[in-house]
Amino acid sequence: MQPDVLEVPLSAKQMYSLGPRTEEAVRQMFHSPQGSLFPTDRMSGTTLPRDDFEFLSRALLNPKWSDEQAEELIKSIAVRRAAGEHLDLPLISRWVLAHHNKVSSVLLCMGVDPPPEIQVRRVLSQAGSQKVVFLASWRLTQREVVIKQLLRADGTAERELQSFPLNISHPNIIQTHRLQNSKGEVFLVEELLTEVLQDGREVEGIHEAANLLYDIGAAIKYLHDHSLVHGDIKPDNIGKRQGDFVLLDFGICRPISEFVGEVTATGSLRTRAPELLATDRYTPDPTKVDVWALGATLFSFLEGRFPLIDPDEVVPRVSNPSERIHFEKELVRRATDEWERRVTMEKVPGELRTILTPMLEREVAKRATSAQVLSSVERLLPAFLRGVGEKASKDGRFSPLEELEQIEEYLHSMPSGTPLPSYKRISLRERLKELEVTQGFSVDHTRRAQGLVESLG
Amino acid sequence: MGARQVQRIQDSVHGLMEFRGMETLPIEMLRTPELQRLRKIRQLGMCNYVFPGAEHSRLSHSLGACHLAIRFAHQVQGEAQRVFARHLVPDEHAIVDLALAALCHDLGHGPLSHAWEREIVGEDFDRKAWAEALGLDPEDEVSKNGKWHEVVGHGLLEWPEGQLHRLLELHERDTVARLRGLLAGRYYYPYLPRLLSGDIDVDRADFIMRDTHNTGVAYGRFDLSWLLSTCTLGRSTDNDAWVVGFDKRKAVRVIEQFLIARRALYETVYHHKTVRCIEGMVALLLRRLKVIVMDGRSLSSMPMLLEPTLKVMRGQALPQEELIKLDDFSVFVLIDIVAEGGFRDDTAQDLARRLQARDLFKQVSVPSERIQDFLGSANAAEKLHEAVKPFVPGHGRDYVLLDQTRFSMMSRNAKHQAMLVDAQGRATKAIDHQSFSAYRDPEEKREWRLFTVAPAIEALTRVVLGPSA
Known about the structure:
The complex is a heterodimer.
Chain A: H1 10-13, H2 20-30, H3 53-61, H4 67-82, H5 89-98, H6 103-111, E1 118-125, E2 131-138, E3 143-150, H7 155-163, E4 176-180, E5 186-191, E6 195-196, H8 205-225, E7 228-229, E8 238-241, E9 244-247, E10 254-255, H9 274-279, H10 287-303, H11 321-337, H12 339-342, H13 350-359, H14 370-380, H15 400-413, H16 422-436, H17 443-455
Helix pairs in contact in A: 2-4, 3-5, 5-6, 8-10, 8-14, 13-14, 15-17, 16-17
Chain B: E1 6-11, E2 15-20, H1 25-29, H2 33-36, H3 58-83, H4 92-104, H5 114-121, H6 127-133, H7 141-145, H8 148-158, H9 163-171, H10 175-183, H11 202-215, H12 224-229, E3 231-236, E4 242-247, H13 248-270, H14 273-294, H15 307-313, H16 320-323, H17 328-339, H18 346-357, E5 362-363, H19 368-375, H20 380-388, E6 401-407, E7 419-421, E8 426-429, E9 445-452, H21 457-465
Parallel strand pairs in B: 3-8, 4-7
Antiparallel strand pairs in B: 1-2, 3-4, 5-9, 6-9, 7-8
Helix pairs in contact in B: 3-4, 3-11, 4-10, 5-14, 11-13, 14-18, 17-18, 20-21
C-alpha cells in the first residue's frame, strides 16, 4: 500500500495548527513504519473514517497546548498504539483538558489501571517520589474520591498497604477503602476532603486552634488506645471535612510493637520528636512522638515556624541523603544547644500555652499523653469546642462561644414590641448563666453573657 | 388541660391529618363558638352557583391551613437544627403557636366574606367604633390599618368572655397576645410569620388545593411535598436577617407551579364572570337593603337571627357576642324574607327573587379598557343608570353592576415575598430570579366588567361604546 493512500482523519489534522512538530508527530502516527495503525477497508483499500481524534484535537486546542508538549503527547500515544495497547481516546482527552501542557500528568493517568468501578479524573499530587494521588470518581458510591496507587518498587510503599489498619472508624480519621484491579494491584480509595492543611497556614484564632488540637488529639488517642502509632503527623497530613479536622496518610502507621528500637525513624523532619533526632531510634513509648508532632504542627500555625526549624528554612529531601544527614545533625544540635531559645511560645495565647507546653516537652516521660492533651483541652478550652463537656450544647453542633454569639444576635434582632414568652426567657437566661462560667471565655465573653442575662430580667 | 395524645381528622384534601401531643391543642379549640361559626361560612362565598362542589366551609380551610402550618413548622425546625444552637431552635410551643394562628387566620370573616365586607361594612368603616365595641386598642396597628375581618378576628381572640380566649389563656398565659402578634407579622422567631402570610404560605397552599379539589378545575395543582421538603432557612442578602425560604437549586419550578396554580384559580374560579356577577348582585341587594334600613324602614316581625346583620347595615359596630351570630345562613334567610316582600321594596324584592331563581344579570360585552375609558368621562355613572332605568323596577343604579377584579402574582412587600436560599445559605427574593421576571409587573392586574339585566344590555353597550356602536 502506498503511504500517501493513507488518510489522516480531519479531526487529527486539526492538531496541525499546534505547530510543525505536532504536525510531524501526527503524520508519523498515521504513516507508521509498521504500517497503518488504523484499519483499512479490505475491499476498497482506503482507511476507514475515524472520528475518535475529535475529542483529543479539541482538548489540545482549547486551551492550546505548546507544540513541544503536544508533540510529546502524540508520540507517546503513537508508541502505545503501535504496541497494540487499547487506548480510550475520549478519556485521554479529558485528562488532556485537566492537565494543560502537562504531558507527564496525562501519562500518569494513562499509566494507572484502576479497578473498573473507578475512573481517574486527574492527578492531584505527586507527594514524594513514591506515590501518585489521583482525583477519581467511584461509580459504586457515585462520589468523587482520592485514589492512591503505591508504586511497588520501594519497600516503604509496600508497607502502607500492609500495615494500614482498615478497620478504623473514627470521625476524625479519614475514611479509606482498599480495592484491587484485575492484575492484583492494590489501590487505596479515600474520601475527598474540602481542604488539606499546608505549612505556613495561620489558624483562625483560638477557636480553630482548640478544635484542631481536640479533633486530631481525639484521632491520635483513638489510635493509641488501639495500640497504634501514626508516626507522621504534620500539616499536610491533616485535612478538613467541613468544620472538622481529619487525620490522614497512614503510610507509617503501625502497631506500637513494631516501633521498636531498631526501626529507623521515619516521618517529616519538621515535626520529628527530639528523642528520634538524637538517637534515630524509637523509645519504649513511641506514642509520644505523635503528641510531639501534633504540638509542633499547632506551634507552626501559631508561631509561623516549626519548633526547631527557622522560618522559611528548606528541609532537604530524602533524595538528597548527604544534605539531609547534615541537616539532621544540625537539628540534633539545635535540640541540645538552642532548645530554650527555640521552643518558646511568644505568640501562643495563655490558655493554649498551658496545653502546648507539656506536648512539646523534651523528655519523653514527662511529655503529655494524647489522653492528657484531650482532657486538658476539654478542661481549659470548652468554650471553643462543639459538643464537648457538660456545658457544651447537648446536640453538639455549636461551641459555647458560637452559641453565645447566636443568642446575642437572636436577642438583638428581635423586633421591638415582641415579648419573649416567659418559658423562653427563662430557658435562655438559664442557658446564658451556664455559658457565663464557661472555662476559656475571655472577660469580654463573660461580660457579654452577663449583659444578656440582665437584659432578660 | 387533658389533651389527648393523638387526634385524627380525615380530610378530603390532605387525607389523614394527625395531631399529636401538644399539637392537639388546635383541635381542642374547635369546639368554641368562635371557630364553629366558620363552619357556617362558605370558603368561596357564592362560587357554588357556578361550581356546584364549592360548598366547603372556612372551617375546613382553616383546619387544612393549621395542618400545613404544623408540617411546614416541622420542616423549618429540622432546618433550624442545622444552623442554630439548641435553645434557638423553634420548639413545640412555637409549632403550636403557628398552628393556632393558622387555625384562627380567617376568624373574623363576615357572611359571604367579600361582598359583605365591601358593601355592608365598607372600606371606610368606623375603625374607632369597631375597636371600642371589640375592646381593642384603637391605636393598635390592626385597629388602625387592618381590614375589617382582621380587626374582627383580633377582637374575637381578645374577647375576655369568649371561650376561645379563655381556652387559649388556660393553655398558657399570653397566648392570645402571641397569636395576635404572629398574625400581625411579629413573633419571637421573626422568620416564622412569613409562613402564615406571604407569596407562599400555608393559607394559600391550603386554599389552592382545597378550592381546586372542590371546584373540580384541573389547573390549581402544585407539588406540595416537594415544596415542603425544599423549605429552609437562609440569611437575607438585604439585611442579614434569618428568613424562611426555599432551596434555590430545587424549588424554582415548584414555586412557579404554585404561583401559576393560584393565578389559574383566580382566572377560572374566583374571577369567573358568573361568580363575580352573582357576588355583585348580592352586593347590590345588600347595598339596597342598607339604604332601606338606614331609611328607618324595618320588618314587621324581625327574626332575632337577623338583628346583628341589620345592625351592621345601619352602621353600628357590634360586640363579639353579636358578631358570632353573623354567618352565611343569616344572609340567606334575609334574602328569602326580602324575596317574600319583607321590606316592601320592589327593587330589593326583585333582586332577591332573581338570586333565589338564579336569574342573573348578563355581561355587557365591552372590553375592559373601553369601560375604563368610559368611566373617565363626565357623569359616567349617571349615564349608565339612565340607560338601564327603562328596563328595571326602580333606580338604574341598583341594576348596573360594575365589577373590577384585581390580581397580583407576587407581593412587593418585603415581609411577604417568597425567598430563595442558595447553597451558601444566602436568601434572595424569588421575584428577582430570572424565572419570575415575567411576573414582575409593577402594578397588580385590574380588569373591568359590566353586568346588567338582559334587556338593558344593548342600551348599556351603546352608552359605553358611544353612538358609533
